[in-house]
Specification:
- It is a single chain.
- The chain is α+β, with helices and mostly antiparallel strands.
- It has helices at about 5-25, 45-50, 55, 60-70, 75-90, 90-100, 115-130, 140-145, 150-155, 185-190; strands at about 165-170, 175, 180-185, 200-205.
- It has a 4-stranded mixed beta sheet.
- Strand 1 and strand 2 form a beta hairpin.
- Helix 1 (about 5-25) packs antiparallel against helix 6, helix 2 (about 45-50) crosses helix 5 and helix 2 (about 45-50) runs parallel beside helix 6 (about 90-100).
- The protein starts with a helix and ends in a 10-residue tail after the last strand.
- The mean pLDDT is about 95.
């Protein structure tokens, strides 16, 4: 038995399940929630939902042209497309983009299927957490994404984790060294992806560094 193939298959199955769950979550949102702020600075729920399916809807060549239009700035490109698509697609369409592409093989440039799952999980939490939807990411999916956290990924996502040790209080998981920061594993995952969380979700001396004012 090829354990590598088994692992890849398990991650792909997790991606498909996560996208279908998130499509159901989006379909259940009341109209007002689509204009609520997300954890992604400057984006409402609808921009995050639009961004999540960008890789399915824009072929590589189109994305390359859009990057050129943005003068090589990937962030500027993704922001413009998210705002455009959020304005032109209905909430039902945005949810369907995820459901209809649950098995799409997209992954981040130079990334892995595990990072593709991370993209879905983190952006799903970007929506669910500020809306207080109390969503719990299934443990098997969460552990796959937690295993991708590294000093390199923290730097890429702008997470200022120097001197801080993340300690999950609901799973056997930790990362880093220094002043302990405690919280649910999925909340610490958001910290590792550069997010600032609402008050009351983190504990420890360093919690103020990662909590919204």
């Amino acid at each position: 038995m090829d354990s590598g193939k088994d692992t890849t298959a398990a991650v792909k199955a997790a991606i498909a399940a996560e996208r279908r769950d998130l499509a159901d979550l989006l379909d259940a949102l009341p109209s007002a929630a689509w204009d609520a702020p997300s954890l992604c600075a400057g984006w409402r729920v609808r921009e995050v939902a639009a961004h999540m399916s960008m890789g399915f809807r824009y072929p590589f060549g189109r994305q390359a042209r859009e990057v050129l239009k943005a003068r090589g700035n990937l962030h500027r490109m993704t922001d413009r497309l998210a705002r455009h698509d959020a304005a032109t697609a209905s909430p039902r369409q945005l949810a369907a983009f995820l459901r209809d592409n649950a098995d799409h093989p997209w992954k981040p440039p130079f990334g892995t299927p595990a990072l593709a799952l991370g993209h879905d999980v983190v952006h799903g939490l970007d929506i669910a957490l500020p809306l207080d939807l109390r969503r719990r990411v299934p443990e098997d999916r969460l552990r796959i994404v937690l295993d991708t956290v590294s000093p390199r990924s923290a730097k890429f996502f702008g997470a200022a984790l120097s001197g801080v040790a993340l300690h999950a209080d609901d799973l056997d998981w930790s990362f880093g060294s220094g002043t302990p920061l405690y919280g649910a594993a999925q909340d610490l995952l958001l910290v590792a992806f550069g997010r600032t969380l609402p008050a009351g979700r983190l504990q420890g001396e360093a919690s103020g560094r990662f909590t919204a004012a």
